[in-house]
Write a structure and sequence with these properties.
Chain lengths: 470, 315
C-alpha cells in the first residue's frame, strides 16, 4: 500500500510540475470564463429594439409582457399561420405562441424565429409565464381552501393562510413552463432549436468528460510507453507488483485530472467574480424566484400591483440576471457530483485500457491499431449527443446512458433533463462493474506487455497474454 | 550454506518452454556466473528470482525460505534492459527507487549521499537524467541497485555501456560488496570477466541447465591432457619421433621456433612426452593447454545442441 502511495506521489508531482499542466491550468479558466462573460457582455451590448409578436390564445399573459429597451411585445389577434406570415413580412424578431389548452393552465409555449432566439428573451418569457401561472394556481388553492373551511370569514382566512404556508401547497404551485423554440428556415420548414441553458451545461459537461478521458487517458498511455522505452520498468517491477505500478499510475493521473478540474472551477469563479466586480452594472445577481413566490405572492388580494412585471421590467441590466437565473435553476450539486463520478468512472474504465495499450507497444506510433476499441465508443457517444438531446427519454438514449463505454458522456447530457435516481444508480453500478472488468483485463495485458520488447503485437497476442497464468 | 536455491523450476510460455526443471544453488558470499546463449532462459530465471513472474513448477528458496513479497527488499537487480526516467532529476529519482525498495526517506538520503560521494558525482544530484552521458547514467543505475544493501545482487550484463576505466571501478565495487557479505549473481556473455570474477557458474542452454559447479572444478574437468611444445633445431617429422599413442594435432613455425600441439593419452603425463622428444629436439618450452571458459561454453553448448539434434533425428 505504501508503495502504491509512492508511485501515486511520483506520478502526481512530476505531472503537475510540467509546463503543459501549468499552461492548461491558466488557459482553461480563461476560456471558460470567456464562455460565461462574452455572451452576457454581448447580450447587454445589444442596441436595436427587437419586435416580438405574441399570439396568446389564453389571454392570460398578453398584458404581462412589458416593453423594455431591448424588446417590444406586440399582441397579434390572429391564428398562428397568419402570425407567422406577418412575422416574416414585418421582419420581426420572434413570434411567441401560447396555445389554449384543455386545462386552464397552459404548460408550454412556442417561440418561432428565423435566428436562434436570445437566451435572455427566453428566460424572460418563461419567468413571466411561470409567475403568472403560479399566481393562478395560488388563487385557485386559496379559493379551494376557503370553500372547504368552517364558517366565519376571519377563521377561514387564517386557516387558508396557514395552509398556504405548508410545503405541499408551495410544491403544488411550483410551475415549470416549457418553452419550445423553433427556427423558421427560408423554405418555411421548422426545426426545433436548442439554446436552453441546461442543455448547454449538459453538453459542456459531457464534452469535458470526453476531453478529460482522452487527455488524461493518453497522458497515462504515454507514461506507460515512457517507462517501457526508457527501460526503467524492469527496475521498478523488481520492487513492486506490475498491478501496483499500473494502479498507482492510473490513480496518480486521475488526481492530476481532478486537480486540474478543481483549479479550473476556482480560477473561473475568480475570473468571473473579478469581471463582475469590475463591471457591476452588467452583473446583478438575481433574486431567487422561489423567494418571490413565497413572500410576495402570499397576498393574492393585490391584483393591481403586478410585481412580477415590475421586477423584470428594466431589462437593460436584467439580461445577465436572466442567464444567471437560468443557470441557477439547474441542480448543480447533482450535476457536479455526477460529473465527478462519471469523470472518474469513465476515466478509470478507459484509463485501464489506455494503460494496457501503452504496455503492449514499443512506441507511440504503434498504438494506432489498438486505439480503435477506445476511440470508437467515445466518438460514438459524441456523435449521438444531438440525438440524445432530442430524445433524452428515448430507449436508445437509455441504453447509451447505461452501457459503461458511453454512459459517462451520455448521462451528463441526460441529467439536466431529469433522470430518475434509480436509473442513475443503475448506470453508476454498471460503470463501476465496467471499470473493474477493464482494469482486471488490462492488468493481465500490462503485466506481460511491459516486459516485452521488439515484438509486433496483435489482438491474438493480447488474448494469449490475458490467458497466461501467474 | 546456500543463500539461494532454485528447485527444478519450470516455466512455459504459450509456444515455448523457457525453463525446464532447472535447479541451481548459489552459495553465500560467492560470485555466481549465470551463463548461456541468448534466449536460453537466463532472463526468465532472473525474473522468477525477482518475483516479476512466477514459476509454473518448482520453487525458489531465499535463505531457505520460499520466496515471499518481502524478499524483494533483500535483492538488488540490475537488469540488462535498464534505464531511468529521462525527465526526472537524478537525486529525486534515486530517492524514489530506493524508497520503493523499502528504505525510509531519511536512510535513503544518507546512503545515497554516501554513494554519490564515493563515485564523485554529488554535483549531478539536481541534474536531469537526460543531461548525463550513457556511462554516467550507468553509474547512477548501479547505485540505485545497491543502495538498499541487499544480501543478493543480480547483475545482468553489468559492464555494457561502461568504458574500461569504469569497468574496473565497477569490478572493484563488486568485489568490495562481496567482501562485505553480499552474494552476487552475474549474468554475462563476457567470458573473460567470468574467469576473472566468478567462483561458481551455471550454464543454461535452451531452457535446460547443462553445466554447473565451481569454475576451478569445471576447468579441471575439461582438461584434455593436451600440451603445447616449443622446440627448435629439428627439421624432421615430429610424429615419427613421438611414440605411437601421442597424437600430434597441429604444428606452427615462427622465427625458427616450432610449436606443436600434442594430445596425450589419459595415462601419460608431461614427463612421458618430454622423455620421448628430448633426444631429438631442443626444447624451449612446454605448457599445458587449459581450456578457457569461452571454449568450455562453446563446446558444451554445441555438444548439447548436437545431442538434441540427434535425438530429434532419432525421433
Amino acid at each position: 500500500m505504501n508503495k502504491i502511495f509512492l508511485i501515486i506521489r511520483r506520478e502526481y508531482l512530476t505531472r503537475v510540475r510540467k509546463r503543459s499542466f501549468i499552461i492548461m491550468t491558466i488557459l482553461g479558466p480563461v476560456l471558460m470564463a470567456a464562455l460565461f462573460i462574452v455572451p452576457i457582455y454581448f447580450a447587454t451590448m445589444q442596441d436595436e429594439k427587437r419586435i416580438v409578436h405574441v399570439v396568446d390564445e389564453t389571454g392570460l399573459f398578453i398584458s404581462k409582457f412589458v416593453n423594455s429597451d431591448n424588446y417590444n411585445f406586440i399582441p397579434q389577434y390572429t391564428d398562428l399561420e397568419t402570425a407567422k406570415k406577418t412575422l416574416k413580412q414585418t421582419e420581426g424578431y420572434a413570434l411567441l405562441y401560447i396555445p389554449r389548452t384543455e386545462m386552464n393552465v397552459p404548460s408550454q409555449a412556442m417561440l418561432y424565429s428565423d435566428k436562434q432566439p436570445s437566451l435572455n428573451l427566453k428566460s424572460y418569457i418563461t419567468g413571466i409565464m411561470n409567475r403568472e401561472i403560479e399566481k393562478q394556481k395560488l388563487a385557485a388553492e386559496i379559493r379551494n381552501q376557503i370553500r372547504i373551511s368552517t364558517p366565519g370569514y376571519e377563521a377561514r382566512a387564517d386557516s387558508a393562510a396557514d395552509n398556504l404556508m405548508s410545503e405541499t401547497i408551495l410544491k403544488n404551485i411550483k410551475t415549470d413552463v416549457k418553452l419550445l423554440t423553433y427556427q423558421i428556415e427560408e423554405g418555411g420548414t421548422e426545426k426545433k432549436s436548442f439554446a436552453e441553458v441546461n442543455m448547454i451545461v449538459g453538453m459542456v459537461a459531457s464534452i469535458m468528460i470526453y476531453l478529460f478521458i482522452f487527455m488524461f487517458g493518453s497522458q497515462l498511455m504515454r507514461g506507460v510507453i515512457e517507462e517501457k522505452t526508457s527501460r526503467i520498468v524492469e527496475v521498478i517491477v523488481s520492487s513492486v507488483k506490475p498491478f501496483q505500478l499500473m494502479a498507482g499510475k492510473i490513480i496518480g493521473v486521475a488526481l492530476v485530472g481532478l486537480t486540474q478540474f478543481v483549479l479550473w472551477i476556482v480560477f473561473t469563479a475568480i475570473l468571473v467574480g473579478g469581471f463582475q466586480q469590475a463591471f457591476p452594472e452588467k452583473f446583478k445577481m438575481p433574486e431567487a424566484q422561489q423567494k418571490f413566490v413565497t413572500t410576495q405572492q402570499i397576498q393574492p388580494e393585490n391584483p393591481g400591483e403586478d410585481q412580477s412585471a415590475n421586477l423584470l421590467a428594466d431589462t437593460g441590466n436584467e439580461t445577465a440576471n436572466q442567464i444567471f437565473e437560468a443557470i441557477a435553476s439547474i441542480n448543480f450539486p447533482l450535476m457536479i457530483l455526477s460529473f465527478l463520478f462519471f469523470f472518474i468512472g469513465g476515466y478509470l474504465l478507459y484509463g485501464a485500457m489506455f494503460a494496457a495499450i501503452g504496455s503492449a507497444v514499443d512506441n507511440e506510433a504503434d498504438t494506432q491499431q489498438f486505439m480503435l476499441p477506445v476511440t470508437v465508443p467515445l466518438i460514438l457517444a459524441i456523435v449521438m449527443m444531438q440525438y440524445v438531446i432530442n430524445n433524452p427519454e428515448g430507449s436508445l438514449s437509455w441504453w447509451l446512458s447505461m452501457i459503461p463505454f458511453t454512459s459517462p458522456v451520455i448521462m451528463m447530457i441526460r441529467i439536466p433533463f431529469g433522470v430518475p435516481y434509480g436509473q442513475l444508480a443503475l448506470s453508476a453500478a454498471l460503470l463501476i462493474a465496467g471499470f473493474i472488468a477493464t482494469t482486471w483485463l488490462a492488468a493481465k495485458i500490462y503485466r506481460t506487455g511491459i516486459l516485452m520488447y521488439g515484438k509486433k503485437v496483435n489482438y491474438g497476442e493480447l488474448w494469449k497474454w490475458i490467458r497466461y497464468k501467474g | 550454506m546456500a543463500i539461494l536455491t532454485v528447485n527444478s523450476v519450470s516455466k512455459h510460455f504459450a509456444t515455448q518452454t523457457a525453463l525446464n526443471k532447472v535447479s541451481i544453488e548459489v552459495p553465500e558470499q560467492c560470485i555466481f556466473g549465470l551463463l548461456g546463449p541468448n534466449g536460453a532462459g537466463k532472463t526468465t530465471l532472473i525474473r522468477i528470482i525477482n518475483q516479476i513472474t512466477g514459476p509454473d513448477e518448482g520453487e525458489v528458496l531465499l535463505e531457505n525460505q520460499k520466496l515471499k513479497p518481502d524478499h524483494v527488499y533483500s535483492i538488488g537487480y540490475l537488469p540488462e534492459e535498464r534505464g531511468l526516467y529521462k525527465k526526472m532529476a537524478v537525486g529525486e529519482q534515486a530517492l524514489y527507487l530506493a524508497q520503493l525498495k523499502g528504505m525510509s526517506h531519511h536512510d535513503a538520503v544518507q546512503k545515497l549521499k554516501y554513494w554519490f560521494r564515493k563515485f564523485e558525482i554529488e554535483s549531478w544530484w539536481g541534474k536531469k537524467v537526460e543531461e548525463l552521458s550513457k556511462g554516467m547514467q550507468q553509474k547512477v543505475q548501479f547505485i540505485v541497485t545497491v543502495v538498499h544493501e541487499p544480501k543478493l545482487l543480480i547483475f545482468d550484463e553489468p559492464f555494457s555501456g561502461f568504458d574500461p576505466i569504469n569497468v574496473n571501478l565497477l569490478k572493484d565495487e563488486i568485489l568490495e560488496l562481496r567482501r562485505k557479505g553480499a552474494t552476487i549473481i552475474f549474468s554475462t556473455h563476457n567470458m573473460a570477466s567470468v574467469e576473472e570474477l566468478c567462483d561458481n557458474i551455471a550454464l543454461i542452454n535452451k531452457a535446460n541447465k547443462i553445466l554447473d559447479g565451481s569454475v576451478k572444478e569445471i576447468k579441471k574437468l575439461h582438461r584434455s591432457n593436451t600440451y603445447e611444445l616449443h622446440y627448435r633445431d629439428f627439421d624432421g617429422d615430429l610424429q615419427s619421433v613421438l611414440n605411437g599413442h601421442f597424437s600430434l594435432s597441429e604444428i606452427r613455425h615462427e622465427d625458427g621456433i616450432h610449436t606443436a600441439v600434442i594430445k596425450l593419452p589419459p595415462d601419460a603425463g608431461s614427463n612421458d612426452l618430454l622423455a620421448n622428444v628430448m633426444p631429438h629436439v631442443v626444447i624451449t618450452g612446454l605448457n599445458e593447454i587449459i581450456p578457457s571458459m569461452n571454449d568450455i561454453f562453446i563446446s558444451t553448448v554445441n555438444a548439447f545442441n548436437g545431442a538434441n539434434a540427434n535425438d530429434l533425428l532419432a525421433d
